[in-house]
Specification:
BioF2-like_GNAT_dom, FemAB family PEP-CTERM system-associated protein, Aminopeptidase, nine-stranded mixed beta sheet, 352 residues, PEP-CTERM_FemAB-rel
């Protein structure tokens, strides 16, 4: 499988992510390009260990120079089918290239690789793509802004209405902790799994959280009320930014303003860690989550996602908000938490 794809003057080949020198070279290229966390081989391999979805990738080379990289996870699901995702379980990824020719070569090689591996769909969560691929620019927004110079400035930078909610959270009898230990992880999974069940979504395998935390700069922040975790977020730190990635709250969190307290405290914690930006991540356009982030003073920037579907196949639909899955979402919301937590990871590992 390491034979080159001879498509242009660039040579494109399948990367060997089991070779430390290869991984180090690609990690260096990602860092030089100031690319996202989700371009890193460390992310792909953590996803593989956490979900069983294979870490792959294509590199483009011109002579001895690396000119492009396409990170991929091969996603298998008995419900949603098979695809190559760039990157799996990520909100970013896609082609990273120094030359337009390398970007096109990588995408054409990805088409060939997908057919070889019986994956009728490729999803690129960012980056360039060929003109004949389907591109969406109106489905998702990303939200990021600089952190302020001190705690008071951070509070005052929040628009007045949302700032009032944060102040209510600060006045509640809540405790906030940050860590990477077993207690932190247990509390986070308890909160997160309940939160996504309430939204009608199966929870990801716990091993995915553990593997990504162990492989990357990360921590868990938990908000406690009388000893019970009521809100939590697992955050990643990359290139000077903090990204609250997997987070949520239980039913009581809303009345306690625990989520508001959680994100404000994370802003302060991230600045003390040396971060200069708060990456509030991706949300669907016109969604409640997007409105929540706008209330914090974040402006949404449209994301460009590209996809390719093999001839003769239908486009993959794993969107829990699509009409196709509305009935399943409604049923899932009513499942007992213990049942949802047993069944969820088996389904969610195929979402990608």
């Amino acid at each position: 499988m390491n034979a080159p794809f001879a498509l242009t003057s660039e040579v494109v080949r399948l990367a060997d992510l089991r070779q430390p020198d290869e991984v180090a070279r690609i990690e260096g290229f990602v860092a030089e390009q100031r690319a996202s966390l989700f371009h890193r081989p460390a992310w792909l391999r953590a996803v593989e260990r956490g979900t069983g979805q294979a870490a792959l990738g294509l590199v483009a080379e011109k002579g001895a120079t690396l000119t492009g990289w396409l990170p991929l996870n091969e996603i298998h699901s008995p419900i949603f089918g098979r695809m190559l995702a760039s990157s799996g379980f990520a909100v970013g990824g896609g082609v990273l290239a120094t030359r337009e020719s390398a970007a096109v070569s990588l995408c054409r090689a990805a088409e060939e690789l997908a057919l070889r591996r019986s994956c009728p769909t490729i999803e690129l969560r960012g980056g360039p793509s060929p003109e004949d691929w389907q591109v969406r620019t109106n489905s998702h927004l990303t939200f990021e802004k600089p952190l302020e110079a001190d705690d008071e400035a951070e509070l005052l930078a929040i628009p007045r209405k949302q700032r009032a909610e944060v102040r209510k959270g600060l006045d509640c009898d809540l405790e906030t902790t940050v860590g990477r230990g077993q207690r932190d992880r247990d509390a986070h999974y308890a909160v997160y799994s309940e939160c996504v069940r309430n939204l009608g979504t199966p929870v990801f395998p716990r091993k995915l959280f553990d593997e990504t935390m162990d492989a990357l700069d990360s921590d868990v922040q938990v908000v406690w009320h009388h000893g019970k975790p009521v809100a939590s977020v697992l955050s990643f730190y990359h290139d000077g930014a903090v990204m609250p990635y997997w987070g949520g709250g239980v039913w009581e969190a809303r009345a306690l303003r625990a989520n508001d307290r959680n994100y404000y405290e994370l802003m302060l914690h991230a600045r003390r860690r040396g971060c200069d930006r708060f990456d509030f991540g991706r949300s669907k356009a016109d969604s409640g989550h997007a409105a929540f982030k706008h209330n914090w003073g974040f402006e949404g920037v449209p994301l460009s996602y590209a996809s390719w579907t093999a001839p003769g196949h239908e486009a993959r639909d794993a969107d829990p908000n699509s009409g196709k899955h509305a009935a399943q979402v409604s049923v899932w919301k009513r499942l007992p938490l213990g049942v949802a937590n047993r069944l969820g990871p088996h389904i969610a590992r195929g979402l990608g």
